[in-house]
């Protein structure tokens, strides 16, 4: 029951969870079930993600169905006004050589995003296991966050975040 | 310990579907003529790899694959492609003779070596699976957190150095500084109202015209086009769009008809 | 639920103080970039850089006897690591001196006034005229040094990989920031970056295969797995091969040397000197550790592979250097050839081999950084005179600089009474002792070929008529003078009385595992 500290679920669910997984395990995963007895927290991923997979298939199927059925059944009568950009839309302008180049300023933004994205990757396990990691974990993460704040401050002070 | 765990039907299905799509994405990346299409193909590969990771009891890896690779790295790829403007029209002429053949031969050689070596190395090995490892610390992510903050704490903190370097490097290479003070709002507005300035709005592109693209000049009441209605860079490039003669006559008819 | 209690890693902060100091100062110097005014940045950064290197060096010297594995086995502080730390810190100090130079170029700094300004643009002209300097090079420099320190002390492949990147990433940037011939410099940075990233991928793939083989990334752990398993199998051999490819790239061994000439030529000479000396030391330090600690048990498997690479490296480096017309490219190929010689010490796989390699690396580092200091001083109207033809007659017009450069060339050639001779003698002796006599014979032949192009430069400086547009030796400030004096002093002193350093490296001939 120690693990109830990590999985935040209403109490009844926690008690039910292992049985639930074992139940699925009996049907399709008996080989596994033999070699490894399920404990709470050790969740067979295929079972957990089955609903997501089914949902994904349904979503894909619906999208494909809508597009196909629309092209098959809808009337097609084109004229000049119809293929124009819609009233307030802007007609695309011709691109310069090389297929349209962006100002390099975007690169800085992209780089900043990546840095904080990777910071997030490290934050996630830390946050999940925060209560196990004691003060040391907290200080280590604080140092890491400080280190990443430093280039941010540098960029801010030097005008890297200004858009002109 | 090396007891072989037979994959069940679900796992097999997921493997073949996602594995197949990943290979399709990789092939599409190589075959696509346009760099942006290549980038989108590789996104497909990455998402499928993420699903495979999740299906193999490594949800954290799957999450990272989506957040970092599909999200951030792909975005950077796209940005770089757009900043550089890579196009299929770029020269593909070999500067070193025979380079492509040599690269092909060596690449095939490396592939054969790796496939043969991995095949031989892994054929007898059993699968251990992550279940035991994941259970030991109360979950996949918890286990990773423990490792990250104990055995690999130095590597973790050193990653910070890497990220700082990346940020500082991006600033150094791309941030444009100004050697003269920038004009303030006040100075800008003064410029606008002194001689040669143009107070008020410039005519917007596409007025009275069928198109409202920024390269379509506005039509003046007499049917001529207004040069200042299109942005200066387009003017400089001589990229203004030609106006349909019918539009001009229509405008003239409208304006003249009203005046009579 | 068997969640054990979390044990924070035990870190010997004193033992790893040099890394912490350099890393901390690097972060601090980014803050300096953020908060200190433009004109004050350079002096503040210089104080930070030189101060932190000296303090770190003090910590290395003060705990010369430390032998410990810390941070849950991630970092190992042993004899070789401490010797390499000392060498890296001293050479970084000299490298910093070269990078701080600003009297040689009439327009100022070694680096571009603003790396982001387009080459040849009005912006660039204005920045240069106003004497702006890109002080971000200093935090980048410190990060690179901290990566090197971690690289030679890393005891697991994961930390080794991160350290490799921390070391390399700033160097890619620094290579592209030359003040003169900026397009060449930017091209070299791009090549360095692309090929470096490629080789990192090899390293990482190798590490993953080794993890598959042994179930651990720790070097002693891999060694244990090797001795525990009866048959080695392809996973181990493939993983080792790929890992070594990644390391040999940084070393500049043939056929992974292609980046070297372009990068050495394009990067600012100060950066080239710093990089040529320190990256070689760091990469060989890591290579030695990997080979001795992790793969010591299967030396019969990797020795033939390194035999081939060592012979290729010595000969390709020496022969191609013969036909170079640019002095920086020539020194690049020279550095490739030198890698081949140092690999003899790796192949020896013995305590003597290790200490001889350490000595060689130190001798090579000082010689190289000194040679690039001279190159940064020999100038023409358009910047440095890197074309060999411009060096004709330099020995007669500037006898002191000519003599100093001759000393470096003689040392690299391995002529007696210079450090290069003692170094070469050491690795050759170690290789013979390990039974690699044929390899040593090949190395002697390669040394003779290499001696040709080193001596050719001396002949050119002293016995040729001055060129039509002769190069002029600019008068440097104290910075370059110190670096140059240190380089030539160490080269000569190690050639005449090598005993103290030989004893030092002989005391550091065992990797802790």
Q: Please, could you describe this protein's structure?
A:
The complex is a heterotrimer of chains A (164), B (260) and C (513). Chain A has 164 residues and is mainly alpha-helical. Chain A has helices at residues 11-28, 30-35, 45-73, 80-83, 105-128, 134-157. In chain A, 64% of the residues lie in helices and 0% in strands. Chain A is flat. By secondary structure, chain B is an all-alpha fold. Chain B contains ten helices and two strands; from the N terminus they run ααααααααββαα. Chain C is mostly helical. Chain C has 20 helices and five strands. Chain C has helices spanning 17-35, 38-62, 79-100, 122-129, 137-153, 157-175, 182-214, 219-228, 233-251, 259-266, 269-294, 299-322, 327-348, 351-377, 394-397, 399-413, 419-433, 437-463, 478-496, 499-506; strands at 68-70, 75-77, 378-380, 383-384, 472-473. Chain C is globular and about 70 Å long. The model of chain C has no long low-confidence stretch (mean pLDDT 92). Chains A and B meet through helix 2, helix 3, helix 5 and helix 6 of A and helix 1, helix 3, helix 5, helix 6 and helix 7 of B.
List keywords for this structure.
heterotrimer; A: 164 residues; mainly alpha; Methane Monooxygenase Hydroxylase, Chain G, domain 1; 6 helices; 0% strand; B: 260 residues; Four Helix Bundle (Hemerythrin (Met), subunit A); two-stranded antiparallel ribbon; 10 helices; elongated
Spatially, the strands of the biggest sheet of chain C line up as 4-3-5
Query: Any idea of the CATH topology of the domain at 101-164 in chain A?
Result: Methane Monooxygenase Hydroxylase, Chain G, domain 1
SS strand fraction of chain A: under 5%
Structural class of chain C: mainly alpha
Give the helix level of chain A as a range of percent.
Answer: 55-70%
Biggest sheet of chain A: strands, sense, closure?
none
The two chains with the largest interface, and their residue counts, are: A-B, 73 and 76 residues
Mean pLDDT figure of chain A: 72
Structural class of chain A: mainly alpha
Give the total of beta strands of chain A: 0
Order of helices and strands of chain C: HHEEHHHHHHHHHHHHEEHHHHEHH
CATH class categorisation of the domain at 101-164 in chain A: Mainly Alpha
Shape of chain C from CA axes? globular
Average pLDDT for all residues of chain C? 92
Q: Count the E strands of chain C.
A: 5
CATH H-level homologous superfamily name of the domain at 101-164 in chain A: NADH:ubiquinone/plastoquinone oxidoreductase, chain 3
Task: Choose one word for the global shape of chain A.
Answer: flat
